[in-house]
Write a structure and sequence with these properties.
This protein is mainly α. It is built from 5 helices and 2 strands, in the order H-H-H-E-E-H-H. Strands 1-2 form a two-stranded antiparallel ribbon. Helix 1 runs antiparallel to helix 4 and helix 1 runs parallel beside helix 5. It is elongated and about 60 Å long. The relative contact order is 0.16.
Length: about 140
């Protein structure tokens, strides 16, 4: 894999994660620019590593290497982090949107690492629209706090 392409992928992961994190910063949430950027960066890096390792081990007798397993590992790891973020306090659940956002950011990082740039961009736009727009819609229509 070309080093320039890897740098572009990693920078793109940081930028797209940062876009989602900026919305969380705007709403004064604990997980913001740094957290979301690091999640997308890490997921992207794991995916790039898995793909490169696959090609290094391809055709070796007695070795079985499936880079798609990294998707499962990233989703599970972020799920673990997300579970730690969710808090039930005084009949309210807090942190659920942050956990879901981090899970989505990880998927965006995996998409970038897998060279699915358009998918990552569309997912980022949708995530930002959901976090900005649907929150206002929920408050207005359903009276949610």
């Amino acid at each position: 894999m070309d080093n320039i392409q890897i740098i572009i992928q990693l920078v793109l992961a940081v930028v797209l994660g940062g876009l989602i994190g900026a919305e969380r910063e705007y709403k004064k949430k604990e997980a913001g620019l740094q957290t979301y950027s690091l999640v997308t960066l890490g997921a992207c890096l794991f995916t790039i590593l898995a793909n490169n390792l696959f090609y290094q081990f391809e055709g070796k007798i007695g070795l079985s290497f499936d880079p798609s397993r990294v998707v499962l590992a990233v989703a599970t790891g972020i799920g673990f982090i997300g579970a730690g973020i969710i808090i039930y306090r005084q009949f309210r659940v807090e942190g659920l949107t942050t956990a879901a956002g981090l899970w989505t950011a990880a998927a965006i990082g995996v998409a970038i690492g897998a060279n699915l740039y358009f998918l990552a961009l569309v997912a980022t736009v949708l995530a930002v629209l959901i976090l900005f727009g649907l929150g206002k819609f929920e408050r207005k229509v359903f009276g949610k706090d």
